[in-house]
Structure formats: structure tokens, C-alpha cells
Design a protein that fits this description.
Distance between the termini: 25 Å
Low-confidence stretches: 109-120, 176-189
Strand order of the largest sheet: 4-5-2-9-12-7
Mean pLDDT: 80
Number of helices: 4
Largest sheet: 6 strands, antiparallel
Number of strands: 18
Order of helices and strands: EEEEHEEEEEEHEEEEEEHEEH
Structural class: alpha+beta
Radius of gyration: 18 Å
Helix content: 10-25%
Shape: elongated
Strand content: 35-45%
């Protein structure tokens, strides 16, 4: 369970998920703000179960360091945002630099109902800078190319390059009907998968949060 260690120069600003801040030095200042305005904040809160207010940390009086911690038990990945933007699943956002925006957008009906990626609304990055995401367990970055689609169990997706096409599939076979796919899914334990196409990357985590919670005693 790593910390995110951020070294800030005077004038630097970052924002992070509520309660992410563990420690900060005296030269830094912490405030709660509605990131992206009231409308976007409400969508993040009610559609994606993110905090209404996010923590903003600014190096006001001097240079300083801070330590942040993700909500989930697991690894973190620092992603460059600008030429590439990312779509984030529920709970994946940890922090971002000042030039990055986290916006809410709609996704298709099939993916919303079965994709386990955030319902009808998902979070999408905009702007320039860096964003930090977290996932349950270890993280791994996969490359998708036009000649190589990848399929990921929907409970293991953390985020993906927004340029990628993605669709929900009942199983990995492309040559079986719906009934056969459902039977195979039930007997193999394969469940739903997301097929990613195009050019870009997908970040996945080693643990499925829903499956892990089902093992905990009630």
C-alpha cells in the first residue's frame, strides 16, 4: 500500500480526492473546493460516488512536500495527460496537477449496465499535466494496437485511453450466439469482459473489488 509523495515548489497546485491527504509540510495550504463547478461536482457525487468537495493543496508560503493515500488498498499509476486523455472507472481517481480537469461524460447503455465501469456516467480527463489513478491490488499497463485487441474482465479495469473503442462481451468467443455465450459464461466463471480496440493503453488491477468483498464475512 504505497504513499503518493508529492514535492511542490512555491506556487504549485494540485487537487485530490477528499481525505487523500495524509501529511503536508507547513508551507502548504489545504482547501476544499468544488472542482469543475457545482454541476460537475454533483454528477461525480451522485453518478460515480466521488466526493462533492475535493482537496486542493497549494504551496503558498514555501516549497513543501505532502503525502497522499488512495481510497482503495493497492497500487497507483502516474499518467501524463495532454496528447492522451483517460477515462476513469469508479474510485480510480487519486490526484491531479492544476492543469488537469476531471469531467463527467455519458457512456453507452450496454457498457453502463454490464461494464462495471461507473454506470451511465464515467469520468474523463481534460487539459494538460498528470493524473494519478489507483486500483485494488497491483497495477499493470497494457498496450492496444490496431492489429491486437485485448479483452479484460470488467472488474479489473482501472482506466483507459479515451481514444480506444470499448464494448461489453459475454465471453471471449466471437463466433457463438448469445445463449451459448451465456451458458459458457456461467459454466466457466468467465463473466463479462470489455473488448478494447484501436491504439492506446489500458490500466488494469490484479484484484476484483466486488469478488473480494463477497468473500468477507457479513
Amino acid at each position: 500500500d504505497p504513499f503518493l509523495h508529492v514535492s511542490m515548489k512555491r506556487g504549485d497546485k494540485i487537487f485530490c480526492e477528499s481525505n487523500a491527504m495524509v501529511m503536508m509540510e507547513d508551507g502548504l495550504e489545504l482547501k476544499g473546493k468544488l472542482q469543475g463547478g457545482l454541476g460537475q461536482a454533483l454528477l461525480r457525487r451522485f453518478a460515480n460516488d466521488e466526493s462533492l468537495f475535493q482537496q486542493h493543496i497549494e504551496a503558498v508560503r514555501a516549497d513543501g512536500d505532502c503525502l497522499l493515500s488512495p481510497t482503495l488498498d493497492g497500487d497507483m499509476e502516474i499518467l501524463d495527460v495532454g496528447n492522451v486523455q483517460y477515462t476513469l472507472t469508479d474510485g480510480a481517481f487519486v490526484a491531479a496537477t492544476h492543469g488537469v480537469e476531471i469531467k463527467v461524460k455519458t457512456q453507452g447503455l450496454g457498457t453502463a449496465l454490464f461494464g462495471d465501469t461507473g454506470g451511465f456516467f464515467v469520468m474523463n480527463t481534460a487539459g494538460n499535466g498528470q493524473v494519478v489513478v489507483s486500483g485494488y491490488g497491483s497495477l499493470f499497463k497494457l498496450d492496444v494496437t490496431p492489429d491486437k485487441d485485448i479483452l479484460v474482465d470488467n472488474g479489473h479495469v482501472v482506466c483507459w485511453d479515451s481514444r480506444l473503442q470499448h464494448e461489453v462481451s459475454v465471453n471471449t468467443s466471437q463466433n457463438t450466439g448469445l445463449l451459448a455465450s451465456l451458458v459458457n459464461s456461467a459454466t466457466s466463471g468467465e463473466g463479462m469482459v470489455l473488448r478494447f480496440k484501436g491504439q492506446g493503453s489500458v490500466v488494469v488491477c490484479s484484484r476484483n473489488r466486488s469478488n473480494s468483498l463477497s468473500w468477507l464475512p457479513s
